[in-house]
UniProtKB/TrEMBL annotation:
This is propane 2-monooxygenase. It is an enzyme of class 1 (oxidoreductase). Transmembrane segments: none annotated. Keywords: Monooxygenase, Oxidoreductase. Its EC number is 1.14.13.227. One of its GO terms (molecular function) is monooxygenase activity. It comes from Candidatus Protofrankia datiscae. The keyword Oxidoreductase applies. It comes from the Bacteria. The keyword DNA repair does not apply. Pfam families: Phenol_Hydrox (PF02332).
């Protein structure tokens, strides 16, 4: 045993940078291969690997690991353990070897690039060990499936896959070619070792080891465990690299590199690991769902790292979190539907007990995916296998090279309510707003507010404001119609909450009718009187004609366009802006404040309807023609309705002329229209 410990001499072995005299330093470390030129050469001397190892320690550790792993493989290979494994787990093993064995070897190119073009000697030394690691990983993960050929012929895809243009191979190759085969040293450190290995695969291997041991696959568990210890060591290169970059004022570039590769790594990871954890692993061996794994390990770890290094979450972080609920489930249906095109035997994983587990882990799974699997299951049971295969090729994303999928139709997941409301949040939000409204009413009622209102103003209220509850009811029930036929739960929820908003406004009008009747006569609280205005008053007839026709808009897209993009915005502007101003001018602050409070709901509603409209226009160029066609069909009716009601504003003691009312409505509706129409340029 040498007398000196590693700490006595280690720094001497990692301090081997020097100043070049015979060649240009820029030629030794060309920017295209090094990528380190943003940082002064001397700054790279601060690069410090957290985990230090000598060559002696390295070979000692590695020979011990290899001896143990290969010995176990030889012993298990003579047994029948693999034959007894669950078919779903065999799919995990075969899929893993085909997708990962060759990329592990190719990763040695990336490690070697860092070992050659990294600017710190300590970095180059660490990358040298990493290069050896990846050579080992490529070779051992080719050797192990070769030993399975007698029991599982598809094991030869470990070597074959990357020599084909299989669509899974293309997606994985596209990712890894950009990540480490054709990348500079700096980017490899941040995108391979920091983003992929530290963020995803290092932790994934820990989970795979546990699952393998649990299902009885000692060979695969031993292999992955052995590989994971190597990954944990050489993955450390990313952290000191990004620290040097940030410390020298280049946080934005580091952020760009992480953002760029995290998304692509996530998509590939969801394909290879999401399916394995939630569908292929035997049910009684599942320790956690894929979503739980990502939340507990990837999300939490990356959140800690971002804070540690002053990085921000990637700009698409909310979309990534959203995809945890559905993306890998959607990809699973693609893989199973196109099962003849992949090298493993995809396990559907949708037995009754498995579906119950999926619903528990992913509430709403049965609603979003269960119906799809019901059809497939019935076709399989009746022997109609031809109906389980797709009739067309999938459309692939040009970035991740995987099929473009959505959970339950084209809109599912693509559109979300900007308010991010679920039932509990909506109720809590509106409970607080109702407390506010009640306090407003209490304050004015304590002052006997209604008794001081001008009778001529009360007459306007009786003619215009109180019959408006019939109009609101149409908006309410049309919102319910739009919600029940909506192609996504996000739209359904928002529409149903909007219907509740209209009911809220309607009920406050009913409250005002009764409270006004206490000071100005019982006719104000008589629905017969209000209905007479609604049914017979010439000022209301264009609006009634419009709204009754709205109830016959049964085409979902037309109903949404007419209600949420044309009719409701105009009526909201008329009552919650123009009539609010009229009430204020006539010293009726209670009515004005209640209308203003209702306007808060309307503005929230326009947030989600505008978002959906922008998505619809951007989703397909032809949608613009349809939306504008429906808008032009309904807008003349809306104009007639608003003009007729605007004429009643002149009867107030402090009147507003119809032209000014029309201008208020036009300004508000034009502003809203521009928010969704001009935001998406015409094709």
């Amino acid at each position: 045993m040498p007398r000196l410990s590693r700490s006595d001499w280690y720094d001497l072995a990692r301090d081997t940078n020097w100043t070049f005299s015979y060649v240009n330093e820029a030629d030794v470390f060309p920017e295209e291969l090094s990528g380190t030129g943003r940082v002064p050469p001397e700054a790279w001397l601060a690069w410090d690997e957290p985990y230090k190892i000598s060559y002696r320690e390295y070979v000692h550790n590695q020979v011990t690991k290899d001896t143990t792993t290969y010995s176990l493989k030889n012993a298990v290979g003579r047994s029948k353990l693999f034959d007894q494994l669950d078919p779903g787990w065999k799919s995990v093993v075969v899929a893993h070897y085909g997708a990962i064995a060759m990329p592990e070897y190719l990763a040695s190119f990336g490690e070697a690039r860092m070992g050659r073009f990294g600017r710190a000697a300590a970095w180059r030394n660490t990358a040298t060990f990493g290069t050896l690691d990846e050579v080992r990983h490529g070779q051992i993960q080719t050797f192990f499936p070769y030993g399975l050929l007698g029991k599982e012929p598809r094991g030869d895809w470990a070597l074959k896959a990357f020599h084909t243009n299989n669509w899974i191979t293309l997606a994985v190759r596209h990712l890894f070619d950009d990540m480490f085969v054709a990348n500079d040293a700096l980017s490899v450190a941040i995108q391979l070792t920091f983003t992929l290995e530290t963020g995803f695969t290092n932790l994934q291997f820990l989970g795979m080891v546990a699952d393998a041991i649990d299902v009885g696959d000692l060979e695969f568990g031993s292999l992955i465990s052995s590989i994971q210890t190597d990954e944990a060591r050489h993955a450390q290169q990313g952290e000191p690299t990004i620290k040097v970059l940030i410390d020298n004022g280049h946080k934005e570039y580091g952020q760009f590199l992480v953002d760029h590769m995290f998304w692509r790594a996530w998509r590939a990871f969801a394909l290879l690991t999401g399916l394995s954890m939630d569908y292929y692993t035997p049910l009684d061996s599942r320790k956690m769902s894929f979503k739980e794994f990502i939340q507990d390990w990837v999300v939490k770890q990356f959140a800690d790292q971002f804070r540690d290094y002053g990085l921000d979450f990637p700009w698409y972080w909310d979309e990534f979190i959203n995809e945890l609920d559905w993306y890998h489930h959607a990809i699973h249906t693609v893989v199973w539907n196109y099962r003849p095109s992949v090298w493993w035997n995809p396990d559907a994983g949708v037995s009754p007990k498995e579906r119950q587990w999926l619903e528990e882990k992913y509430p709403g799974w049965n609603r979003a995916f269960g119906k799809h699997w019901d059809v497939l299951t019935e076709n399989v049971r009746t022997g109609n296998l031809a109906e389980t295969f797709p009739e067309t090729l999938p459309v692939a994303c040009n970035l991740c090279q995987l099929p473009i999928v959505r959970a339950a139709g084209v809109l599912a997941g693509a559109h979300t309510d900007p308010a991010q409301l679920n039932y509990r949040r909506y109720i809590a939000l509106q409970h607080d707003r109702e407390i506010y409204a009640e306090r407003v009413v209490d304050r004015f009622e304590a002052l006997d507010h209604d008794a001081g209102l001008d009778p001529a103003w009360v007459a306007v209220l009786g003619r215009v404001y109180l019959p408006a509850r019939f109009a609101l009811h149409v908006l309410q029930i049309t919102s319910l119609y739009v919600g029940q036929l909506a192609p996504s739960a996000a739209i359904t929820n928002a529409s149903f909450f909007q219907a509740a908003d209209e009911l809220r406004a309607l009920q406050w009008i009913a409250y005002r009718a009764k409270s006004l009747s206490l000071s100005h006569g019982p006719d104000l609280a008589d629905s017969t009187v209000a209905r007479r205005f609604w049914e017979q008053d010439p000022a209301w007839q264009p609006a009634r004609e419009l709204l009754e026709n709205l109830l016959l808009a049964y085409d979902w897209a037309e109903a949404f366009t007419a209600l949420d993009l044309v009719v409701k915005p105009a009526f909201d502007a008329l009552f919650k802006q123009a009539f609010t101003a009229l009430a204020t001018a006539n010293r009726d602050e209670l009515t004005a404040q209640l209308l203003h409070e209702s306007g808060v709901d309307s503005r929230r509603g326009q947030d989600w309807t505008g978002t959906l409209a922008r998505y619809i226009l951007a989703a397909r160029p032809g949608n613009r023609e349809h939306v504008l066609g429906w808008e032009s069909r309904w807008q003349p009716r809306v104009t007639r309705a608003i003009d007729a009601l605007a004429g009643t504003f002149g009867a107030a003691p402090a009147p507003a002329d119809a032209a000014s009312v029309r201008q208020t409505v036009d300004q508000a509706t034009t502003q809203f229209r521009n928010s969704w129409l001009t935001a998406v340029p015409a094709a």
